[in-house]
Amino acid sequence: MRDSAVSPVRWIFGPGPTGPSGHLGARWIFLRALGLIYYSAFFSLVFQVTGLIGPNGILPANDYLRYLSQHLGSVERYWYAPTVFWLGSSDFALKLVCCIGMAAAVLLTLNIWPRAMLLVCFLSYLSFVAALQDFSSYQSDGMLLEAGFLALFFAAPGLRPGLGRGHPPSRASLFLLQWEWFRIYFESGCVKLLSGDPQWRHFTAMDQYYQNGPLPTWIGWYVQQLPHWFHAFTVGLTLAVELGLVFLMFAPWRRLRVLCFLIVTPFEIGIILTANYTFLNYLVLSLGFLLLDDRALAAVPLSRVGRWIKTKLAAGTLPADVKPEPAFADDSNLVPRWRLHLSAIRLALGAVMLSWIFYATSVLLLWMFFPHLPLPTQPVAVLEPFRIANRYGLFAVMTRARYEIEFQGSDDGKTWVPYPFRYKPQDPAKPPGIYAPYQPRFDWNLWFASLDNWRDNPWVAHTEELLLINDPEVLSLFAGNPSAEKAPTLIRAVLWQYWFTDLTTKRQQGLWWRRQQLGLYAPELQREADGSMGVVAMPGTPPPEP
What 8-state DSSP symbol labels residue 321? Predict the structure, then answer.
């Protein structure tokens, strides 16, 4: 009875199949890619984090955590903001956690103690997401944390597990990673229709897409020049992939899953080349490999790759140093009792956590269509601070125009000098670059802020205040300091509207952009003789006469 009661749980949450229907090769590829993605996330933070949330940054983490400690209980505050920076959030501490995360990501990529490295990466990245405030409100952060947490149950144990043939991934952990991949696509397709944005219905959503996204690329500039029929086709392709093709993930036939992979992979590569969405599309691309079982990978047409995979996945006996997972009944006389207890604890922990995440993510999906469905909400709310069970939905409403915020300094109120950005469009003659998976959170956030009111983004005005005193940490977020010799007397943030130029203009004038200044975005500030700051002009009002 005991064995029959445990068997269904063990079949779902215990070691999965090996052989042609196993996923040892896909797991190996995915975890190597996940290590690189984690590295890119920490690498981008190490150059920005002190300017963003350092003690002298735009939104200091120590002020935020102090506020939480004053308004939340002694236990509740740690649950609301699960971060190691409760122990300290100095510039040194912030960069130290970045370096620890990068080191763990490198070891994960090298397949050294993967479960431990995944735990270090997850806790380090969660600490930043919980402390970055306005600079971590991205779906990509939730995607990485969810995939990173599920990978803890997906990875093989051991210091150097190789392919982990003695510890194949459980069916539950594999399915939940595939489930995340499916939800990213399907929920994004659903929100496009549920939002009511006429651009998706009229097949015009992609006509200005490459121009109006957060950080365009030079390849996107050329794609923007293509005729409307091409952009209408990409709208149809996007909806077909997100709302239809991804259901092939559930197909019982290998060929259909492979077909799905062969279509969505070029689709993702096209997005990567035409827009800078940080590591988001790299993660989705990596998750797509989990559609392929070992037989599909061994059939890779490139001869050398195929031979290497076939060699690695060749069936045979387990290596001598690999011990199989103990069973609960039949092998009880062959393994120590402590191993049986430990295996049972691991199985129970995995069953509880993975079932919990599946419930939470399924409820979030159902609520998209039936928002008043009477399902228990507490299991969903408890996981929310950890960002491991998320609702996704990209580009529900397409941006109709491109606005850019530019900070400018002056000593006389007549001559204004702009602060140069590292990644955002600014100089009309400079081509947009390809930066992903690097994530410039400051530049990225300014794009979101440009679509809203400055009062809803007070960090923009605070950035002005810090530029008035030549704060070095905030200046490090820019490509240079036009007031390096002396802090400016006046600072303002102005709003521009940008458009891609056409082929003729680029050929004749060398310009990638044309732009028009629209006025102030945030209050114009002045540094008084006594060091205090005053407001000279407000958005919507004309500046004073010089």
Answer: T
